[in-house]
Structure formats: structure tokens, C-alpha cells
Amino acid sequence: MKEAKRILGGTACISGNRSASVLEFGKKEEVIRQTRQLLDDCMPGGGYIFDFNALLENCKPENLDAMFETLDKYGKY
Is the distance from CB of 77 to CB of 43 less than 8 angstroms? Predict the structure, then answer.
């Protein structure tokens, strides 16, 4: 995503790349780290829409909470 942002950032909006597998099977700390990294890589300059690559129905509730808390704290322009 970082490379996509570098190449397309001034031309097109990009979205996605939030893997649901970490939300399903990972630890809360990894969810926070990956969510924050995605925001740090893609938010500067605008043109990023946070999105998922799968359905969220099988995700751990505590991981979803951690992701949304991270988005609320760091995901604002």
C-alpha cells in the first residue's frame, strides 16, 4: 500500500488492504500495530479510504474494538 500511495497518491484515491485474518486470529497488539502502520503509510496527503479485504463476521470482538479505537484515535484528517 505504501508503494501504491507513492505512485497513485497525487492522481487517485486508494482504499483497502486491511487484512481480516489478523482480526480473526491475531492478537490485539498486532491489530493496533498493523492498523496504525496502514494509516501512517496511506493517510498523508489525503486520498485514502480505510477498507477490508474480507467479511468481518468471524473476527474477534476485542480485535475489532482495538481496530476501531485505533482508527478513532489516528484515522482523522
Answer: yes
Q: How far is 20 from 57, CA to CA, in rounded Å? A: 10
- Residue 12, CA atoms < 13 Å, CB-side half-sphere: 7
Q: Are 62 and 22 in contact (CB under 8 A)?
A: no
Selection from 44, 22, 39, 40 nearest residue 31 by Cα: 22
39 pLDDT exceeds 90? yes
Q: Which whole-number Å values give the CA distances from 61 to 21, 32, 65, in the listed order?
A: 13, 14, 6
Distance, in Å, from the CA atom of 25 to the CA atom of 22, rounded to the nearest integer, reads: 5
Looking at the predicted structure, is the pLDDT value of residue 38 above 80? Answer: yes
pTM over 0.90: no
